[in-house]
Amino acid sequence: MTSRREILFVGAGLAALGVAFVRRGRAAPAGVFEVTHTDGEWRKLLSPAQFDVLRRAGTEPPFSSPLDHETKSGLYACAGCALDLYSSKTKYDSGTGWPSFWAPLKDAVATSSDTSLLMQRTEVHCRRCGGHLGHVFNDGPQPTGLRYCMNGLALTFRPGAA
Fold first, then answer.
1. Nearest to residue 157, comparing CAs of 70, 27, 96?
2. Rounded distance, CA 98 to CA 115, Å?
């Protein structure tokens, strides 16, 4: 018998492949950001995989990020500009294969409409550099009921006070 986790894993993997195929080449959201660089500068600052996620709205494979299983107290920051985005106090295991949070830190993220993959979603990006972080969904735990499903490649983790 197929378990719910196996179904989620296969579905998430297919979705990630679809997102990588459909969204490849999409630029970071337009706008004026406090931290800006040319594509060449971003490529020097980020690994190729981080550049794909943060600057081209790619998606890492599910269950591939060590941050998905991180349980220490600390802060999660943008891998592009080091802005603190999430506290470990709001992190939870959503079972989806990506680090998930029920709330960002105040004034840390911004959102925009994402209509790729022929569906309506809410994209989450760093408010300081515009880097793509992931998406937010309305199926998270209380107190917000939100699930900020983030790419681990878009984040760094700093243990300590959260």
1. 70
2. 21
129 included as an active-site residue = no
Contact criterion met (CB below 8 Å) for 92 and 101: yes
Report the pLDDT averaged over residues 46-64: 97
- 4-159: CATH superfamily: Peptide methionine sulfoxide reductase. (2.170.150.20)
Domain regions of the chain by residue span: 4-159
Q: 130 with 28: CB under 8 angstroms?
A: yes
Query: What would the pLDDT profile of 56-99 be if each residue is shown by its tens digit?
Result: 999 999 999 999 999 999 999 999 999 999 999 999 999 999 99
Strand partners, 121: 114
CA 48 to chain centre: 16
The single residue of 78, 81, 126, 149 carrying the catalytic annotation is 149
Q: How far apart are CA 92 and CA 104, in angstroms?
A: 13
How far apart are the C-alpha atoms of 116 and 83, rounded to whole Å? 27
Q: What is the pLDDT of residue 32?
A: 82
